[in-house]
């Protein structure tokens, strides 16, 4: 019933929003609390385009409806009172109403002792119910966000199962000549009651490579997901693949998992097996000497028909070069870091990060018309990133890639799709061109806006002066018409500056943190890193680079005492405080709490306002700090983790891939904060610009050995992948 009421009051609201409100009202016990219902419903429906007076009326109806549902099981008609009521003591009874406003002394109402007419056991239950109701109201905002998050998690589970519904098996030989440009106009996208895009236009030219950029939480992944699910009208003949989930770990070898990604090839191979099996069965039947001539002729006709179909299948397999598929899949896996033996290993033996690489390999192998990658460089080391950049530069179809790595976007993107203020802006060229053009466009927009405001003021002044003058009235009317026809220009948005700040620690006398001849392995037979010698000082700025699996993170864990050396010595100053950032630690955030509550548990002793102010200095502002953290984007969770690090007041910052998920403004803020920090910093990263800005030493971890590199990060990239290499 509530769905019909909401739809009638706000017909322009998305169906998902209506279902969300209905579900939330059913999930939570609002009883007849109209204020609580209005607090929840009004902001969502006003954002959806509803009128305030109609929404107020809706809240009254919803309150009545919920109360009616609550009372539907109650007894109807007259009921006998438990005891008689003495009306002369009505004043004393009225005084008990004050229980809901505070404490009351029933024995001293009106200055005299009276006999209570209230059952004391029921009174205690009523007080407990009131207290529980008040506590429930306090939790409503968190309950709301938890409900949204549970819907999100359910959708994530269903996404993989529904993929084939979104992408029917297409015969690539019949779609070759069709136009594969995408042009979708005037569409909206909302998520969890929040508008992501309003009246937006999506225009993608086939064969172009689009870098998708925008701030954390702006909705980039939501847009790609909506395209993948065809929630916006992408033509059915265009195949789409969005890489966001790792492959399932089972007994399937990695290379076989990649080969299976080409569903059209798999379909043809299965058809070939079925037809060949039927032909073999017919040939076996034809050896029966007792078969009648008519049956034999029927089988021969069926066999000829099957042979014709089989030739068509072979022709289609030849068109897609099916015989070269295994070598192509192997080359892609090799480029992403899988050696020959790893390609044959079952996927269940790989970690989540490596299974994400297999997902990426599957996408590159099957070559959809539109490939969408969400921060693919997060899961890769520098050699794999270099390979991926080279591979994507020759990508023949449409590509959309979300990335916060400027160098990666400069290498790969032919266009930039900028997402902001519920709209999409397009820029030709790579990220460097976009950055320069965006500022010029903003200045031009500001000049145009200021010029029009001045012109509007001039017209309005003329109108106000001469509107009631008989001689000048026609001219004033003319100016009014001009004013009404002027387009409404919006001022360019002021970009909020994100700042990170780490408190400067007290000085320590050296040695601060040293590793001397350290060797480590999880088993005596398999040494991961050996003979490590490194000295961290209060002014150290060290970057550790190298291929995945070489032992970089293992070395950091030796510094932080998460691992103990099997040989050698790790010396730490007795007063040393180390703050350690890793993606694993982000995963360990209590996602059922909001950021303020989480910090209050971890670092007690401050007021809520102080925690919110501290989170605000790391870009977690407004209501975001009060959202349950499972609803935050990856970049927002990273900011919460950095805010927690700063409260540890560390002497040494140990950072493992700190730029993953952060948007470019946050990366710039982190760079500035580290430059101003008076303690030591050691970083594992693949972000070339970040390393260049922050670090003055580069150490290479490879083959179980850690050694200092004399050049820059650019020199290192040249060394592992020379430019003239074909």
From TrEMBL:
<keyword id="KW-0067">ATP-binding</keyword>
<feature type="compositionally biased region" description="Basic and acidic residues">
    <location>
        <begin position="285"/>
        <end position="303"/>
    </location>
</feature>
<keyword id="KW-0547">Nucleotide-binding</keyword>
<protein>
    <submittedName>
        <fullName>P-loop containing nucleoside triphosphate hydrolase protein</fullName>
    </submittedName>
</protein>
<dbReference type="GO" id="GO:0016887">
    <property type="term" value="F:ATP hydrolysis activity"/>
</dbReference>
<dbReference type="GO" id="GO:0005524">
    <property type="term" value="F:ATP binding"/>
</dbReference>
<keyword id="KW-0677">Repeat</keyword>
<feature type="region of interest" description="Disordered">
    <location>
        <begin position="283"/>
        <end position="303"/>
    </location>
</feature>
<feature type="domain" description="ABC transporter">
    <location>
        <begin position="182"/>
        <end position="446"/>
    </location>
</feature>
<dbReference type="InterPro" id="IPR003439">
    <property type="entry name" value="ABC_transporter-like_ATP-bd"/>
</dbReference>
<keyword id="KW-0007">Acetylation</keyword>
<dbReference type="Pfam" id="PF12848">
    <property type="entry name" value="ABC_tran_Xtn"/>
</dbReference>
<dbReference type="InterPro" id="IPR050611">
    <property type="entry name" value="ABCF"/>
</dbReference>
<dbReference type="Pfam" id="PF26051">
    <property type="entry name" value="PWI_ABCF3"/>
</dbReference>
<dbReference type="InterPro" id="IPR017871">
    <property type="entry name" value="ABC_transporter-like_CS"/>
</dbReference>
<dbReference type="InterPro" id="IPR027417">
    <property type="entry name" value="P-loop_NTPase"/>
</dbReference>
<dbReference type="InterPro" id="IPR032781">
    <property type="entry name" value="ABC_tran_Xtn"/>
</dbReference>
<keyword id="KW-0378">Hydrolase</keyword>
<dbReference type="InterPro" id="IPR003593">
    <property type="entry name" value="AAA+_ATPase"/>
</dbReference>
<dbReference type="InterPro" id="IPR058770">
    <property type="entry name" value="PWI_ABCF3"/>
</dbReference>
<feature type="domain" description="ABC transporter">
    <location>
        <begin position="513"/>
        <end position="725"/>
    </location>
</feature>
<dbReference type="Pfam" id="PF00005">
    <property type="entry name" value="ABC_tran"/>
</dbReference>
């Amino acid at each position: 019933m509530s769905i019909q009421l909401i739809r009638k009051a706000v017909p322009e609201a998305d169906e998902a929003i209506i279902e969300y409100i209905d579900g939330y009202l059913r999930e939570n016990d609002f009883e007849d609390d109209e204020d609580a219902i209005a607090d929840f419903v009004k902001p969502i429906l006003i954002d959806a385009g509803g009128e305030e007076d109609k929404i107020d009326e809706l809240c009254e109806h919803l309150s009545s409806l919920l109360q009616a549902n609550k009372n539907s099981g109650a007894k109807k008609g007259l009921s006998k009172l438990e005891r008689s009521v003495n009306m002369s003591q009505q004043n004393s009874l009225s005084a008990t109403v004050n229980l809901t406003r505070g404490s009351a002394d029933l024995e001293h109402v009106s200055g005299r002792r009276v006999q209570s007419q209230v059952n004391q056991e029921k009174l205690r239950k009523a007080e407990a119910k009131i207290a529980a109701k008040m506590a429930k109201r306090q939790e409503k905002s968190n309950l709301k966000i938890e409900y949204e998050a549970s819907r999100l998690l359910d959708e994530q589970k269903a996404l993989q199962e529904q993929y084939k519904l979104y992408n029917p098996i297409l015969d690539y030989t019949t779609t070759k000549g069709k136009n594969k440009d995408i042009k979708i106009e005037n569409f909206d996208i909302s998520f969890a009651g929040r508008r992501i895009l309003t009246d937006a236009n999506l225009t993608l030219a086939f064969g172009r490579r689009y870098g998708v950029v925008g701030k954390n939480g702006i909705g980039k992944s939501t847009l790609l997901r909506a395209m993948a699910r065809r929630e916006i009208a992408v033509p059915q003949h265009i195949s789409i693949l969005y890489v966001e989930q790792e492959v399932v770990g089972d007994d399937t070898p990695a290379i076989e998992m990649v080969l299976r990604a080409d569903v059209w090839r798999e379909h043809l191979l299965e058809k070939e097996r079925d037809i060949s099996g039927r032909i073999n069965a017919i040939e076996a039947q034809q050896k029966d000497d007792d078969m009648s001539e008519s049956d034999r002729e029927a089988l021969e006709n069926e066999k000829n028909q099957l042979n014709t179909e089989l030739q068509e299948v072979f022709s289609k397999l030849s068109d897609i070069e099916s015989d070269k598929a295994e070598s192509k899949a192997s080359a892609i896996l090799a480029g992403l870091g899988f050696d020959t033996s790893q390609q044959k290993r079952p996927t269940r033996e790989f970690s989540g990060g490596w299974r994400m690489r297999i997902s990426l390999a599957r996408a590159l192998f099957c070559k959809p018309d539109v490939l969408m990658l969400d921060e693919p460089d997060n899961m890769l080391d520098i050699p794999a990133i270099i390979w991926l950049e080279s591979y994507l530069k020759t990508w023949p179809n449409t590509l959309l890639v979300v990335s916060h790595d400027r160098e990666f976007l400069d290498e790969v993107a032919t266009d930039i799709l900028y997402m902001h203020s519920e709209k999409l802006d397009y820029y030709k060229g790579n990220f460097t061109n976009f950055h320069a053009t965006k500022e010029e466009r903003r200045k031009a927009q500001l000049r145009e806006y200021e010029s029009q405001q001045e012109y509007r003021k001039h017209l309005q002044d003329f109108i106000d002066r001469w509107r009631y003058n008989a001689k000048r009235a026609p001219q004033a009317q003319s100016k009014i018409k001009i004013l009404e026809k002027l387009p409404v220009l919006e001022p360019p948005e002021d970009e909020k500056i994100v700042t990170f700040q780490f408190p400067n620690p007290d000085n320590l006398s050296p040695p601060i943190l040293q590793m001397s001849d350290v060797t480590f392995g999880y088993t005596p037979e398999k040494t991961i890193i050996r003979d490590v010698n490194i000295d961290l000082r209060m002014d150290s700025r060290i970057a550790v680079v190298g291929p995945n699996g070489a032992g970089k993170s293992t070395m950091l864990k030796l510094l932080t005492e998460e691992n103990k050396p099997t040989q050698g010595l790790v010396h730490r100053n007795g007063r040393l405080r180390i703050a350690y950032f890793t993606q694993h630690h982000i995963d360990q955030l209590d996602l059922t709490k909001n950021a303020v509550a989480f910090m209050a548990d971890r670092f007690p002793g401050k007021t809520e306002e102080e925690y919110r102010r501290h989170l605000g200095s790391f870009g977690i502002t407004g209501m975001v700090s009060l959202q349950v953290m499972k609803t935050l984007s990856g970049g927002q969770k990273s900011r919460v983790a950095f805010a927690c690090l700063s409260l540890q007041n560390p002497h040494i910052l140990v950072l493992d891939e700190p730029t993953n998920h952060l948007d470019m403004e946050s990366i710039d803020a982190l760079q500035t904060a580290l430059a101003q920090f008076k303690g030591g910093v050691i970083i594992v990263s693949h972000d070339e610009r970040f390393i260049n800005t922050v670090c003055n030493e580069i150490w290479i971890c490879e083959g179980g050995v850690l050694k200092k590199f004399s050049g820059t990060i650019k020199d290192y990239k040249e060394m592992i992948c020379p430019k003239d290499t074909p």
